[in-house]
Predict the 3D structure of the following.
Amino acid sequence: MKSKEDLRNLLDRIDRKSYPAYKDTRGSYDFGMFILNIDHVQGDPFAAPSKVSVTVNGTRAGFPEDYYRVVQSQNKDGLSGQTYDEEKNGVLLSKQKRVALQDFILRAFAQEIGKFQRKAKGSGKSGAMQISHCGQEILERTACQVSAKDGTVRMQMEVGFPARGRTIDSKELQKIFYDYLPKCVEQALLYKNVNQPKLKSWIGVTVDVYTIRQELKKKKLTAFVANGSILPRETGVSSRPMKEAVLFESPKSMEIELDLPNRGTICGMGIPQGITLIVGGGYHGKSTLLEALELGVYTHIPGDGREYIVTDDTAVKIRAEDGRCIHKDDISLFISHLPNGKNTVEFVSEDASGSTSQAANVVEAMEAGAKTLLMDEDTSATNFMIRDGLMQQVVCQEAEPITPFLDRIEDLSKKCGISTVLVAGSSGAYFYKADKIIQMESYKPKDITEFAKEKAAAYASDILCATSEQEFVMPKFTGKPRYMDASRGSVRGSSRGSDRDSRVKMKTMGLDGVMIQHEVTDLRYVEQLVDSEQVSALGYLLMWMIKKHPTGTLQEVVEEIQSKMETEGLSVLADENRQTANLAWPRKQEMMACLNRCRQIKFD
C-alpha cells in the first residue's frame, strides 16, 4: 500500500496537467488514522464526482463491541445455552444494532463534511463532497459499513476532483485529502469524539423497537402506537414531525403497557390481529394514522415522533394501480368468469384496471408473506371494495365477475391469518365485518366498536352487506407457484461485441421507478419505499436477474438473492460496481413487488 506522501508527490507532479491525469491516483493510501481508497475517478470536472472511501480499523475506531458484534451465549461446556429461536433473535438483534450504529456514523460524517462543502474551488463539480442522504428511517446502507467481526468502519463518498477549466488543480484536492477529510474522520469515525449519549439513544430505540416487534407476536397484535407519538408531518413533502401537533393518545379500551429495555414502561394503542376499521370525518387524521402504520415496518430515528409506532414488519399497503402489468396472477379469489372468457387463474395484463390491479396487489402481497394488509378507501377501486345488496339485486350475481374485498376480508383473517387495517369514510358496510372500529376525531382516536355495531344492527344487513356465493379458494401460488425466467425478457442492448448484457444500462428515477434500456418498471405506487437508494438496490436486482438468468419460483429467486445479500452484503447486487454503489436494503415485499412490475421478466 502506498503512503499519503506518495499521493502528495503524485498530485504535485500532475498539477496543471490535463484532467485525465487524475486517473493515476486510483489506489489505496495509508494516512495513519485511516486508509484512503480512490475507487473511481471522474472523466472530467463536469462529470459525476469521483468515488472514494475511507477505512478506519476497529481498534482505532473504538466503538463498543456490543454495538456491532454478534454475541451468542455459551454454557460452561462451551455449548450454546440458548434455544434456536433465542439464538436467531440474538443474531437479528445484533444486526439491528449494527445497522443503527452505521446509520448514526453516516449521519455524523455527513454533518461534518457539510462544514467543508465547496471550500475547495474550481470549475464543474470541483470541491463537491457528497454522501448518502438519510431520511427519518434507519436503513442498512452500503455507504457506511461496520464489520461485525472487528468493528472496522468503511465510509463511501463522492468527491469532485478540482480543476481550472479542464486542467488539474491538485492543490485544491490536497486541501480536501489532507485537511478537510482527516477532520471529518476524526470527529465522526472515532468513538471517543462522537456524541456518545446520542449514539446510545440510537441503539436504545433500535433495541426497544425490536422488543416491541416480539411483543406484537406474543400478544397477537398487528401494530402498536405509543402515547405521545407525533403522527402528522411538517408538510406534504417533508417527513419531519409537525411542530405543535396533537400528540397521540390511545383509547383506554385499547391501551396496553409494554416494558422495554431502554425506554422502560410505555403505554399505547395495541391494534389486534383481525379486521380493524379506521373511520372519521375528512381531515381528522384517518389517513395520517394509516401512513404512520405503513412506515411502522421501519425503525425511526430518535426525535422523529414515530419511534414507537411499530407495525408487523410484513405489512403491505394495498391500492388500485391502473395501468400496471400483471404476470400470471391467480386473481380468481376476487375476479372470475370475465365476459371475454379471459383466464383469471393465470391472469395476464399489460394495462390492468383499478379492480384487477388491486386484486393482483392483494394476491402478490399474500405470496410475499404479508400477514397484514393496509388499505385506504381513497386509493382503492370502489367496485373492488364493495358491492351492496341493492346493486346485487339490480345487477344479478351471474353478470358481475367481481367478488368484492368485503366478501373476502373475514376469510382472509380466519382462514389465512391475514389481518386488515382499512380506512373508510363513505360506506358503513365494513362495520359488519370489523373486529375493532376506531374513529379519528381531531387526530384523537376513539374506540367506537360497540356503538358502531349497535347502529349497524338497526339497518338491514342483508341489504347493506350481501354475501357472495363464490367459494373461498386459496390462490394457486400456494399449490403451484409461478415460475419466472429472466432470460426471456425483452432487454435490447447493443449488437456490437460478444457480451450484450454487459452494456445494459440502468437508471433510477427517485422513488418513481427504474429504467433499464428504455423500459420503465413503475414503482410509484409501491408506497412503502422510502429512500431512492432502496430503488437503486431494486434496479440492481433487476440487472442481476437479467444477467444471471435465474429460473424458479418467485419466492425461490428472491430467497436466493436475499441469502447472497445476507452472506456477501447488500453490494452483491451491484456486481462489478459493488465497491462504489450506494444502496439501501429493501424488504422482501418490495423486492417481489418490483419483480412483479417488471415487463422485461417473463413468468411461466
Observations:
- The mean pLDDT is 90.
- The two ends are 51 Å apart (CA to CA).
- Residues 84-114 form the longest helix (31 residues).
- Residues 213-480 form a domain with the Rossmann fold fold (CATH 3.40.50).
